[in-house]
Design a protein that fits this description.
Blueprint: E1 3-9, H1 30-35, H2 43-48, E2 72-76, H3 85-92, H4 110-120, E3 124-129, H5 132-146, E4 149-153, E5 158-164, H6 170-183, E6 192-201, E7 204-207, E8 212-215, H7 222-228, E9 232-236, H8 239-242, E10 250-252, H9 257-267, E11 274-280, H10 282-288, H11 293-312, E12 319-323, E13 342-347, E14 355-360, H12 365-373, H13 386-389
């Protein structure tokens, strides 16, 4: 029985990509930004080799000649056009997106908004790029008083709908998102439609954990290939949403990183044959987008503290892969994602130790390697590194 645990530390980038200037992200380095906080402490990830990754070791000269590590590491470049969650996860799963998803720096066009208002029976307010916490502060009172839906976007390809749970019940908000998803096709096919429910009274509104993402349906990914070959594909967190449920045999939602880690550890005790794909979203959603350096550092430290529990649950043929999907540097003026390399940290009892694979050309090498591990003929992008890491 072979099991792979693929854990995405959402937005934990490790330095600007060569084309970062095209995205306004020159100088971004999410991991280093978090390390400037006094709350940052990752000795277990250090032992696995996180700080020996190209572009990371140069930022942490205090480790000096302490170069021995137990894992296998690399940094991975994004070949897809974009820097959003959907694009990043799809590339990890073997799809390189040649065309970026559409973005709306001036808000959505009038015909889309008019059609959405007609189908939902509610007016729209805002319709601008906005921070999720700022938008409910600035428009929440009007929404509560009028019932109008707060529609907003960001630098990413998202159509977000915020509504107070007492004004628009969560199931109704989800239905509105489904309407938006049906409308946003063709040239307006955004990567995700996102429900953003909130609670509280003015001015103390707070987003809840009832967020729900409605992604485009991807083409063939490693998930589809594994499922079709009879393997289990378990999803933890928002993985199911990102892939529109395609290629997934079991899923569980999580409210935060702590719950996501517990669900991961729980699954190390399960008898399954295949992949467990985990997303830990707090790094991005709670801290990166809010430019909270200390919060980001605390979240990374917490993950590191729980890592020994994860490793303890791994069996002889298991492989643990820890990576990310993009950056979200909390120290830059921008509150949006950043165009960065992502880390690759791998550990398993049957794997070599102290191997640095350098810089990989695409995130899709992860998919290629997992498919080769299960001897499933590859239909995705990427080049496998499996032979380089097996003993």
């Amino acid at each position: 029985m072979k099991r792979v645990f693929l854990v995405v530390l959402d937005s934990v980038g490790v330095g600007e990509l060569p084309d970062a200037d095209l995205y306004g992200d020159v100088g971004s380095h999410t991991l280093y930004a978090a390390s400037t906080s006094s709350y940052f402490n990752m000795p277990n990830m250090k032992k696995l080799g996180l700080f020996q990754i190209d572009g990371v070791k140069e930022k942490f000269p205090e480790f000096g000649s302490d170069t021995a590590f137990d894992g296998i590491v690399a940094r991975m470049a994004e070949q897809s056009k974009g820097k959003d969650t959907t694009t990043g996860h799809w590339e990890i799963a073997g799809i390189i997106s040649e065309q970026p998803f559409p973005t709306y720096p001036n808000g959505f066009p009038e015909d889309i908004i008019n059609a959405f208002e007609e189908k939902t029976g509610r007016k729209v307010i805002c319709n601008l790029p906005y921070s999720g916490t700022d938008v409910i502060r600035d428009y929440g009172k009007e929404h509560v008083e009028t019932g109008a839906l707060i529609v907003y976007t960001s630098a990413d390809s998202v159509f977000q709908i915020a509504a107070h749970e007492e004004i628009v019940p969560v199931p109704e908000l989800y239905r509105y998102c489904e309407i938006a998803r049906e409308l946003l096709t063709g040239k307006h096919a955004v990567g995700r439609v996102i429900a953003r429910p909130f609670v509280g009274t003015y001015p103390d509104y707070k987003r809840t954990s009832n967020r729900h993402d409605y992604s485009l349906e991807p083409g063939t990914t490693m998930l589809d290939q594994l499922k079709d070959a009879g393997y289990d594909t378990l999803a933890v967190g928002k993985i199911y949403d990102i892939f529109a449920g395609k290629g997934i045999t079991d899923t569980v939602r999580t409210h935060d990183n702590a719950e996501g880690i517990e669900k991961l550890i729980e699954r190390t005790g399960w008898d399954f044959n295949g992949l467990c794909f985990v997303n830990l979203v707090d790094f991005d959603m709670v801290y990166g987008h809010r430019n909270d350096v200390d919060g980001y550092a605390k979240a990374l430290t917490y993950f590191d503290e729980q890592l020994p529990r994860i490793l303890a649950g791994l069996r002889d043929e298991d492989i643990l892969i820890i990576t990310a999907d993009h950056g979200c540097d909390p120290s830059t003026p921008s509150t949006d994602h950043s165009r960065e390399y992502i880390p690759l940290v791998i550990w398993g009892k049957q794997l070599k130790q102290g191997i640095n694979l350098g810089t990989r050309a695409t995130y899709a090498d992860i998919a290629a390697s997992i498919l080769e591990y299960y001897q499933v003929p590859q239909k995705t992008a990427g080049v496998s590194f499996l032979k380089e890491i097996l003993r």
